[in-house]
Every structure is written in structure tokens, then in C-alpha cells.
Design brief:
With 203 residues, the protein is an alpha+beta fold. It has five helices and six strands. Bound molecules: methionine sulfoxide (SME). Methionine sulfoxide (SME) binds next to α4 and β6.
Length: 203
């Protein structure tokens, strides 16, 4: 099978629970043998985005998914070798998540996750380590609008358990053009995919 074909969704798949089961299986084989998080998150965002667009309820014009990607704890990114950037100096003492691999239009580069200062759906999901299902982004206090066409959103934290410590590595964020685009079955499916992604990479 060509790599691109892993994002195809057979016509026999009709329910959301079958859809997420199928995507999970395709992703597990796509990530096999690769442990680099940049590579695996790039393929995950592409597979999930394109599979959603080929699935009946998400590929449909005004209800389509319009962004799918990751924001990752800035400390996991490679650092400049010679000098800290001006922006890093200004942000010293804050924590942030940086834009990682994604599919869709350009998005904000970083999100402040300093407790008490961070705002938006991604920061709230990151800090609470809970999946946030937002029916109407315009009604969400502090929502960061990267694209004015987005109306609903789901953000799932990437949580790693290291012996007795629980670490949040970043978030998996999906946007939809429709109000109420995502539901409980998507939440369960994405949480399972987030667990697979975390386990499939060396952090
Ligand atoms: N809406 C997010 C920002 C990221 S974009 O949707 C890609 C938020 O409120 O955190």
C-alpha cells in the first residue's frame, strides 16, 4: 500500500466509532518502526486530516474539518546553538507550546501556557490535561482565533506517564467549519489516537 492510501476511508465505514477504529489501525501501521516525534506527528496530522475529509460527515463543504495539528512544549524543540532569540529573552520565565506539524492554513506560532496567564482552548487543555470539546468557539472565553472561518474545536492533551510523574507534552488540536462539529465519539477516538502517538515516539 502507498503511504498516501493509509488516509483513504472505505465506503463500508459509516459510523464514527468504526471510522476512528479504522484510523487508529491505519495510524498504528504508518508509525511502526519510526520513533522521531516530528516525523510521526507530521504523518499523524496528515492521516487524520485527510481521513476526516474523506469521511461523509467531515468532508462536506460547510461542515468540513479545516485544521488538524499539534502544539508541543517548547522545551522539546531543538534550541538555537549560539544565542537566545529576542523573543525568547522577552518570554523568559514563561512556558509555552509551539506550533508543530499540522495540516491546514497557517496558524499562530506559540501559545502561552504559564499557569494563570495562558488563555485559549489549547492552553486550557494543556494545563488541565483534559480534552476540551468546544461546540462554538465564539462563545469560549479566551479562544484564540487563528482562522475566522472556524466555528468548533476539539483539543486533546498528549500525556506521558514517566514512572510516577505525569507530563503533558503538548496538544492535538482539530478545528471545524461547523458549529458542534465534534462529539463524544470523536473525543474517544482522538484520545485513543493521542495515546498511540505518545507511545510511538521517543520524547
Ligand atoms: N483556537 C486555538 C488556537 C490554535 S488554532 O485553532 C490552530 C486556541 O484557542 O487555543
Amino acid at each position: 500500500m502507498h503511504h498516501a492510501d493509509t488516509s483513504l476511508v472505505p465506503d463500508s465505514i459509516q459510523s464514527k466509532s468504526d471510522f476512528w477504529l479504522h484510523v487508529h489501525g491505519q495510524l498504528a501501521s504508518l508509525l511502526e518502526g519510526q520513533r522521531d516525534w516530528v516525523t510521526n506527528l507530521a504523518n499523524t496530522s496528515s492521516l487524520v486530516y485527510n481521513a476526516l475529509l474523506s469521511f461523509r460527515s467531515f468532508g462536506n463543504g460547510s461542515a468540513a474539518v479545516n485544521w488538524c495539528g499539534f502544539y508541543i512544549d517548547s522545551t522539546l524543540f531543538p534550541s538555537p546553538k549560539l544565542t537566545a532569540s529576542h523573543e525568547d529573552a522577552l518570554l523568559e520565565g514563561t512556558s509555552k507550546i509551539l506550533l508543530g506539524p499540522f495540516c491546514g492554513k497557517p496558524a499562530c506560532q506559540f501559545i502561552n501556557t504559564t499557569p494563570g496567564k495562558g488563555r485559549g482552548v489549547c492552553a486550557d487543555a494543556y494545563l488541565s490535561r483534559q480534552t476540551l470539546l468546544v461546540r462554538d468557539v465564539n462563545a469560549y472565553p479566551g479562544h484564540i482565533a487563528c482562522d475566522g472561518d472556524t466555528n468548533s474545536e476539539i483539543v486533546c492533551p498528549l500525556v506521558l506517564t514517566l514512572e510516577d510523574k505525569v507530563v503533558c507534552l503538548g496538544v492535538f488540536d482539530l478545528d471545524c467549519l461547523a458549529v458542534g462539529g465534534f462529539g463524544e465519539e470523536d473525543k474517544a477516538g482522538l484520545e485513543r489516537i493521542a495515546r498511540l502517538v505518545v507511545e510511538s515516539c521517543d520524547w
